[in-house]
User: Fold this.
Amino acid sequence: MKRLVSILLALVMVLALTACGGKDSGETTPPPADTSAPSDSGGEETPEEPAGPEPITLNIAYMPNYASLWGVRSAMEQGCFEEEGITVVLSEFPDGPSEIAAMESGKIDLAYIGKGAHRLCVLGNAVIFAPSSVHTTDKIVVHPDSGIESMEDLKGKTIAFNSGSSSETTYDNALKVAGLTRDDVDGYDMGIDNMVPAMVSGTVDAAVCWNPYSGQILQQVEGSKEIEFSDGSTNISSWICLPKYAEENHDVLVRFTRALFKGMDWGSKSENYEAVAQLCADTIKSNLESQLSQLGDAHWFSLDDIKSGMADGTVESYYKNMQNDFVQAETLKPEEVVEDVSQFVLFDVINEALK
Assistant:
């Protein structure tokens, strides 16, 4: 009996080993699924986030007044440059020619200029990639002891102006309106920032300058006043860069201009005037009142102004008429006039930015 039990137990163990795979079945355990591959269930891969614009820092030149700052400060305040991946570093300059000189030295990338410095664009020193504002009247500041009450009274007077800038253009326009030439007055060419002390000391009878310098004269010289005149010329302000910079940085100019136009559209609305004026005042360490007083100096372009002006040729006419003004003022020779203004105005950048 014991022998029979032993045989039976041995048989059970053999059968158990066979059932547990003692015999090669030819099958292997499948490898674990590759979790990195798409499943067969029709699921889709999670799309990657689109890359933002390449970050870039731009050194921007401005003059210490509302006209120069209103657009760029509006764009900064509204986060328009951040959307384009642009960091703006502002640097102050007294006038357009000194800004262009700074660009030529490599210190500045882009700059705002008034009408006078546009002559350098016509001559090929710089190119325009965005309009900023326009106005059709000019002003000169007169000393209370000068006896000047009208443009005709400028004859024989000492008048301070700044050559190469909008000051010189306005100076020549004032003489034209008065029926005078430079030989009829005592012109005094000086730095724009030297006009305030010259007027305070009574060294000159009148000064041809812009805010904040004209405002400082009115504040510091009791009885001084501004005389406004119009000669039918168009006074345009613009944003510029060097021709070589434009060739090498087309996309950067489009990004900057697109952001600038968005800011200008916000800043051109009357309900935002005070906020913009405060931004300008904070930038140049001025007061709100002095900036608000400059709101009437020009027409501040909105996005619609630029779109319609590009469509009907108004923007192009500004730059054509500007050249004619320079010729009449004898600051540009007739043979220097550029018939196709797209040679110094980058309409392609403007149009791309408007899209």
In short: The two ends are 103 Å apart (CA to CA). Confidence is low (pLDDT under 50) at residues 1-43. The first helix runs from residue 2 to 22.
